[in-house]
Amino acid sequence: MKSVYFKDIRTALDAVNRSNAAFVLFCAPSAVHELSQQVKQSTVLCSAAGEYCSLGYQNGIISGFEYDPQMAEIVPIDPVPALSIKDMKQAYQKVKNNPNAFLLLLCEGLSKIEEKIMTSLYFMDKDFKVIGGSAGDDLSFTETPVYIGSEKVHSVGLFFDCKRRTYLARENIYRPSGKEMLVTDADPMNRIVRSFNGGPASTQYAKNLGVSERDLNNHFMNHPLGIEYDSEIYIASPQKINGNQSLSFYCQIMPNSFVKILEPLSPEEVIKETLKGIPFKPQFLLAINCILRCLKFQQEGLWPVIDQNLTGACQNTTGFISYGEQFYQRHVNQTMILLAIE
């Protein structure tokens, strides 16, 4: 697999349509639509809130990778994911015994469908590698298109029958602060929490952080919530405070569960540890970074040091900025999902 990037649509079209390889490309929604009119059918297009390539974090380019078309099976995913189970199951059966195989999920980013897609994967072994990202549109929140060639699809799964060793990592740049809250009223389907500890959600969140409720939204980026699962912390990012003091999130939070208030670690130290954990010298890296991580790195001037570490570990690196991440069979936020291939 080889990372690619293009500065304009014409250059991308020339390269893609001349090649015998298949491609997965990440770019702005407008570029996705324009490319879809002319690319070959083996090209998957996913809108992004920013791109990642061998130069590091970029915004406004076309990034992605090329691969041998015999290496992967592409499966469109219906807006009702249960209707795609048969096709997904058939593709999975062909690769399930390969420990290096993996599923790349590219989900529509605005319909809150990720958990439904993940639930529809019940037939897969829990250890089968799944890496995914939700399509983005640079915070305009209007359209997050995904295409297979000229066909607009809701979401897509690519089952890769990889022959080289693969390794999947999830990077979390937060840790529990020691404070936690009980979710006492929530609407998981709409990703809304109405109350923590029996009181209005925004009031209790602000109280536990020791900040004013009026200023709470300014603390979401550095103090998201953590959900503990199998002794691991998975991040749930607040989106906004609603008029009734409820909170909207970017993923589901279940009622009658405890959530931990998180605090930031040093991203530079964490990225070094993440890369040390790869059990081989990677020849290819696919990095999917959450939009909220991207905004934090932009505000704090951290992208250069992140880029230095990632591209220093492997120049053949690609990826995109997402509206949520998929890791094995969970949908998470504010995370980097990293796939390494030897």
From TrEMBL:
One Pfam assignment: FIST_C
Ranges of residues in domain FIST C-domain: 201-329
Domain FIST: 18-200
UniProt-recorded name of the protein: FIST domain-containing protein
Organism: Lacrimispora amygdalina
